[in-house]
Amino acid sequence: MSHPLISIIIPTHNRPHLLPKAVESALNQTYQALEVIVVDDGSQEQATLPDDPRLRVIYLDKNVGGAAARNVGTKAASGRWVTYLDDDDYLLPQMVEISLSTLEKTTVEPPVAVISALQKVDETGKVIATRIPPALCPQGDHFFLETPEPGRSFHTKQTLVVERDLILKIGGWDETFRSRVHSELFLRLNLQCTIIGLPKITYHLFSHSTDRVSGNYQLRQESFQRLIKKHEEIFSSHPKMFAEFVYKHALKSYKMQQKKAALIHLLWALKLHPTHTFFLIYRSILSQLSTRFPKKFLIASNSS
Fold this sequence. Notes:
This protein is an alpha/beta fold. It has two domains: 6-206, Spore Coat Polysaccharide Biosynthesis Protein SpsA, Chain A (Alpha-Beta Complex), CATH 3.90.550.10; 238-292, no CATH class. 42% of the residues lie in helices and 20% in strands. It has a five-stranded mixed beta sheet with strand order 3-2-1-4-9, with helices on both faces. Strands 5, 6, 7, 8 and 10 form a five-stranded mixed beta sheet that branches.
């Protein structure tokens, strides 16, 4: 295996208690040809970080948002390859080695990027969920608007390893977005390159009680509408998965107590693809029932 340099870019804002673990996980990779670039996005309190020649910290005078901070890190990177680590998550030790080994050995025509599996963990370290990406998203596809294989999930975008020059070529991260930044990037990225999905777990997504951008009700609604408006033609060409995307947003809105928004988006999903949306509703009801009633009761009910 050759050893091209990879840059691990970590945007951060006001998380001095979480950032050190993320940085440590990046520095402790089994793959040695790396640099870690922390982009401090106008934090009020700076974290205490290790003294390591592979670590660089870029301080921004004001908060510009995660997309803009990632762009700063990408432009400053020296590596041929880049990956992005959220400041409240952490990499497993072989993340970089597994990803770059796959990219070196693949026979897929370039340009090629790779994503891998991740686990969502709580504050005690308990695994809440495991997500495995689709095996292959060919160049020209529209990533999460395609139909994945059973048991596969598009919600592994945080594990992306891609060539720095390709990110710059497609215009980097869209700085008008403060939420849905990964979804927006992947719609443009998959048009330009094939994305290989690995079933190996390389990333831990940390579920915690600290404030997150994804938990901001207003930002989520604004970014959702902005995403669809920007890529309206692509969404319209995939009515089934478009409906599923809107339906899932309706569910999330409901969980966030945005009941009016939830109803509006549920009706929108039904309009886009009634059959698939009714199937999603039916599956959701069954899931709810399975948590409330014994499995034997459900089997008996379904067979009667």
